[in-house]
């Protein structure tokens, strides 16, 4: 079998002779080739200036009966009549003037030249073209004459496209990675007449379309039957840029909904006093603590709603997580009644509804409010209450009021101490007193720090006990009699010398908050004391007791970490004089202002009036009407990095600090706005 596409350029006195020579060289028959006449031959005048005929003969692979009379067949070929003009004479005549002498040019893919007595034109090939001069391959610049036969061989380039189909982990999507293919069509550029012509090539890049049938067959082979995007497949098959295409997407499962508590009325403590239309505060309209009556429905515990399964691209079902019910812990003052729509929570006492939601559990109870219709003084004694306290009068000198809920004082707090688990509202002034809002939040934040270190030490101690328990000197049977006390003592005397002090600090911190912490905290502290502090008679009998203690500590650690510090806690007062205020939330003081006091806030601080002397530390922003004094004690306002300080009128001796940057005002300034820029430098506007 002959190789198709094989080509030869042949010359002869005429076309017939040139074709015969080519067929003989190729050892082919006429029906198996394609003949292109490049130049007709010419005899010239009196034998001078004769030109040879030039043909290109290409094997096309036709299978036919051999031609009996080859010469007759050649004579019968329909050949185009060409004028006797070698090397593209048509173009040559176009440039027929003296300026073409000694130059070459390219027009319509043909190389032309005009000789001169003193100069020969030159032509130089390029990498992507094969130049033949009189059937010989030319690799460098070459001199040419009008009688030379010049041909160029230029090939198109084809790069087949490459694609890969894969299913991503989880089978929720399938992607098609494409490296597009293309055909580069090339032709020779036209060149103006010059003494040396550099052959250059023009290229046109034509994208190749990917056949879709093999791709669809691969889809069927991989079992991809769900979520197929045929529009995206068509776009991928015709793209001219490499990329990854998502051609199938599974249906994710629709998650269900866990059981939840749906309140039917306002249960949260409102943060603030009611304002009049002119912006002033109406202290007569006090609706801060929502309350319920016996028989009133607080809300409904709704059952879980299951989710809807999804599907992978291969048609496999994907199931959502199981929807779980809400665990109800019914506290004091409520009953739970089953209903078609869920479980109704009904109050049996009048008071303030207390709803604590943690994870998948809800603890709901009614806290009755303690109302004191006069001053808290020596005649009444100190007040300790588990719920909310409302004091119609004032808190007088030396008295103590503690409540786990909210405290409302219609009068003043004079040289007294007031501590609330949530909010403190004082209608008038706080004078030479200490007021705390969110005591449990402060306490739990401190306990959290100790618990974090305690759990780390406990984990290391557990590993050490596991290791020591394998030593023959400590037989497991003796632990049931003596407990783990001997092992704990050895460890505390060795690698864990700081552990007893850490445990004792944690126990003392928990005991200091027995009035605001739940009973579980007290039980945990007792367990630590009997297990670690009383090491000579430790109640820990096995490693399982240690592991259980670690799990309890980790649960308390998670509870204190998840607790929203300052949520529902705030202090509001008319004025503050020579006092200390601590709030895990916001602190708001009306137009009467603050004088020579220490303010600590876990939230925002806002003072409508003046701040004269003292210090304000806020975890969030501070906004004040006027600060400082003329020649008096300095007034300091501090916020962390990322927060701001706004002062309408900052007088001398006012110090502002944002992060670690401090500035002191020497002259009175208005509309002060302080913050840090992106480089940590203090900006003052």
> How many domain regions?
5
- Helical element count? 11
Oligomer: single chain
| Beta-strand content estimate | 35-45%
Fraction of residues in H or I helices: 10-25%
Low-confidence stretches: 63-68, 78-97, 282-288
Radius of gyration: 49 Å
SS elements, strand count? 48
Organism: Paenibacillus darwinianus
Domain RNA-binding protein KhpB N-terminal: 9-60
GO biological process, one term: cell morphogenesis
InterPro entries: FapA (IPR005646), FapA_b_solenoid (IPR046865), FapA_N (IPR046866), Jag_N_dom_sf (IPR038247), KhpB_N (IPR032782), MinC_C_sf (IPR036145)
Structural notes for this entry:
Pfam families: FapA (PF03961), FapA_N (PF20250), Jag_N (PF14804). This is RNA-binding protein KhpB N-terminal domain-containing protein. It comes from Paenibacillus darwinianus. By secondary structure, the protein is of the alpha/beta class. The protein has five domains: 69 residues, no CATH class; 164 residues, no CATH class; 108 residues, OB fold (Dihydrolipoamide Acetyltransferase, E2P) (Beta Barrel); 143 residues, Pectate Lyase C-like (3 Solenoid); 115 residues. Helices cover 20% and strands 36% of the residues. It is built from eleven helices and 48 strands. It has a 21-stranded mixed beta sheet that branches. Helix 10 runs antiparallel to helix 11. The chain is elongated, with a radius of gyration of 49 Å. The chain starts with 6 loop residues before the first strand and ends with a strand.
């Amino acid at each position: 079998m002959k190789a198709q596409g094989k080509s030869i350029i042949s010359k002869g006195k005429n076309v017939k002779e040139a074709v015969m020579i080519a067929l003989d060289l190729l050892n082919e028959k006429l029906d198996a080739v394609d003949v292109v006449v490049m130049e007709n031959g010419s005899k010239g005048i009196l034998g001078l200036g004769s030109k040879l005929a030039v043909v290109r003969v290409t094997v096309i692979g036709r299978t036919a009966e051999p031609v009996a009379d080859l010469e007759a067949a050649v004579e019968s070929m329909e050949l185009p009549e060409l004028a006797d003009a070698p090397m593209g004479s048509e173009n040559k005549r176009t440039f027929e003037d003296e300026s073409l002498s000694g130059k070459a040019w390219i027009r319509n893919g043909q190389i032309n030249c005009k000789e001169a007595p003193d100069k020969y034109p030159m032509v130089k090939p390029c990498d992507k073209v094969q130049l033949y001069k009189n059937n010989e391959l030319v690799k460098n610049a070459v001199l040419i004459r009008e009688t030379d036969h010049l041909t160029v061989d230029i090939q198109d380039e084809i790069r087949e496209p490459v694609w890969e189909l894969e299913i991503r982990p989880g089978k929720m999507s399938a992607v098609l990675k494409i490296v597009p293919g293309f055909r580069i069509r090339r032709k020779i550029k036209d060149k103006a007449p010059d003494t040396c012509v550099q052959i250059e090539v023009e290229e046109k890049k034509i994208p190749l379309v990917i056949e879709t049938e093999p791709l669809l067959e691969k889809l069927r082979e991989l079992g991809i039957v769900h979520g197929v995007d045929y529009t995206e497949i068509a776009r991928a098959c015709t793209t001219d840029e490499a990329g990854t295409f998502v051609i199938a997407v599974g249906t994710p499962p629709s998650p269900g909904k866990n059981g939840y508590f749906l309140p039917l009325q306002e249960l949260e403590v409102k943060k603030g006093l009611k304002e009049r239309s002119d912006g002033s505060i109406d202290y007569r309209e006090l609706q801060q603590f929502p309350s319920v009556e016996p028989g009133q429905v607080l809300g409904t515990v709704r059952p879980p709603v299951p989710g809807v399964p999804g599907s992978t691209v291969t048609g496999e079902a994907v199931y959502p997580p199981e929807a779980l019910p809400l665990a109800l812990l019914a506290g004091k003052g409520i009953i739970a009644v089953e209903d078609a729509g869920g479980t109704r929570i009904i109050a049996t006492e009048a008071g303030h509804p207390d709803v604590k939601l943690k994870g998948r559990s809800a603890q709901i109870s009614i806290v009755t409010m303690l109302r004191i219709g006069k001053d808290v003084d020596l005649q009444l004694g100190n007040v300790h209450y588990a719920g909310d306290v409302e004091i119609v009068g004032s808190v007088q000198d030396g008295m103590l009021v503690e409540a786990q809920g909210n405290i409302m004082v219609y009068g003043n707090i004079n040289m007294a101490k007031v501590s609330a688990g949530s909010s403190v509202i004082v209608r008038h002034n706080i004078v030479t007193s200490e007021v705390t809002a969110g005591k449990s939040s402060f306490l739990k934040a401190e306990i959290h720090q100790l618990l974090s270190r305690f759990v780390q030490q406990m984990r290391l101690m557990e590993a050490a006990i596991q290791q020591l328990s394998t030593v023959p000197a400590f037989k497991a049977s003796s632990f049931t009699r003596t407990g783990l006390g001997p092992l704990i003592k050895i460890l505390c005397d060795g690698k864990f010398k700081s552990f007893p002090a850490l445990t004792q600090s944690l126990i003392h911190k928990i005991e200091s908050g027995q009035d605001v912490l739940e009973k579980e905290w007290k039980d945990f502290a007792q367990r630590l004391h009997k297990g670690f502090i009383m090491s000579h008679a430790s109640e820990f009998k096995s490693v399982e007791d240690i592991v259980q203690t670690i799990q309890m500590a980790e649960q308390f650690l998670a509870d204190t970490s998840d607790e929203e510090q300052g949520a529902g806690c705030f202090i509001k007062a008319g004025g503050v004089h020579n006092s200390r205020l601590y709030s895990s939330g916001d602190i708001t003081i009306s137009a009467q202002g603050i004088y020579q006091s220490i303010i600590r806030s876990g939230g925002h601080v806002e003072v409508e009036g003046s701040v004269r002397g003292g210090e304000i530390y806020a975890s969030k922003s501070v906004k004040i009407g006027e600060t400082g004094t003329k020649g008096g004690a300095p007034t300091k306002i501090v916020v962390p990095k990322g927060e701001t300080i706004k002062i309408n009128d900052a007088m001398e001796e006012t110090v502002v600090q944002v992060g670690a940057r401090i500035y002191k005002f020497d002259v009175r300034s208005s509309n002060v706005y302080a913050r840090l820029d992106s480089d940590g430098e203090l900006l003052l506007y």
